[in-house]
Write a structure and sequence with these properties.
- There is one protein chain.
- The chain has 249 residues and is an alpha+beta fold.
- It has helices spanning 5-20, 31-35, 60-72, 81-97, 121-128, 190-202, 221-228, 234-241; strands at residues 2-3, 24-30, 50-57, 103-107, 132-134, 151-153, 162-174.
- The strands form two sheets. Strands 1, 2, 3, 4 and 7 form a five-stranded mixed beta sheet that branches. Strands 5-6 form a two-stranded antiparallel sheet.
- Helix 1 packs across helix 4 and helix 3 crosses helix 4 (81-97).
- The protein starts with a strand and ends in an 8-residue tail after the last helix.
- The relative contact order is 0.17.
- This is Cyanocobalamin reductase / alkylcobalamin dealkylase.
- Keywords: Cobalamin, Cobalt, Cytoplasm, FAD, Flavoprotein, FMN, NADP, Oxidoreductase.
- Belongs to the MMACHC family.
- GO terms for molecular function: cobalamin binding; cyanocobalamin reductase (cyanide-eliminating) (NADP+) activity.
- Its cofactor is FAD; FMN.
């Protein structure tokens, strides 16, 4: 039986609040909305009305979830620490909030055997209303000869966020009253969109694309230092900060 939009919100309320305290946000949507804008090769293999939830991390995640995770948990040496923190946090919240539900979880870094991503993160962000996915197709006369990669912009966070995971509730169907919300088109002019895509594709290291709109939150200096550090050197940085022992290197 399909559930109403009110029941969807009731189902997700405790989960939403638990993750918000850790610096994450959630955005529910129907699988059919996602599949409708993609070719069959990228479809999620669930009925169209199946409830899905996109999870993003906000700037607060670093201090509210990641650093406490490093203090209280042992990191596996072969896995990215942020990925481990995200998986640990989501697993704990899902177990707490959805003990009687069948929830499939896919993370942004996971791949299928075909080497395709398990889900297209920026497309999911757009159809869920989390963030607008700006692409070359949003520019009337692109000034570039080559294709530019697209990027999502959050109306309150700009580019200061990350898409982390997709949850699918196998046995929950959302009813007709659960309506799609369009993402906020916060980069409105053609000039701003050109600047956004050029900044993201050509100057991503300077962080400027993240400030294409005024952001209510931004990464702390410590968080910036972590993410600007090459992945292979981040464990050394964490040891320097005192968060990893030699046995976790």
């Amino acid at each position: 039986m399909a559930i109403s939009s009110e029941r969807v919100e009731e189902l997700l309320r405790t989960f939403r609040e638990s993750l918000k305290a850790k610096g994450f946000e959630i955005y529910p949507f129907k699988v059919g909305w996602y599949n409708a804008v993609l070719t069959a090769a990228h479809h999620l293999q669930y009925p169209a009305d199946t409830l899905a939830v996109l999870v993003i991390s906000t700037p607060a995640m670093f201090e509210c979830a990641f650093l406490p995770f490093l203090q209280s948990q042992s990191c596996e040496s072969l896995r990215d620490p942020i990925d481990q923190c995200t998986a640990h946090t989501l697993s704990a919240c899902i177990s707490l909030c959805f003990a009687n539900q069948s929830v499939d979880v896919s993370y942004d870094y996971e791949m299928l055997p075909s080497r395709k991503p398990k889900f297209l993160a920026q497309t999911a962000a757009h159809v869920s209303g989390a963030a607008y996915y700006y692409q070359t197709s949003d520019i009337h006369n692109p000034p570039w000869g080559e294709k530019m990669f697209g990027v999502c912009v959050h109306p309150q966070l700009g580019g200061w966020f990350a898409i982390r995971a997709l949850l699918v509730f196998r046995d929950v169907q959302a009813g007709a009253g659960f309506q799609q919300r369009d993402p906020a088109d916060c980069v409105c002019t053609q000039e701003e969109r050109i600047r956004l895509l050029e900044s993201f594709n050509l100057r991503w290291r300077d962080w400027s694309y993240r400030d294409i709109v005024p952001a209510e939150e931004r990464y702390s200096d410590q968080q910036k230092q972590y993410f600007i550090t090459p992945p292979g050197q981040r464990r050394a940085l964490l040891r320097q900060w005192g968060y990893l022992t030699d046995t976790q290197s």
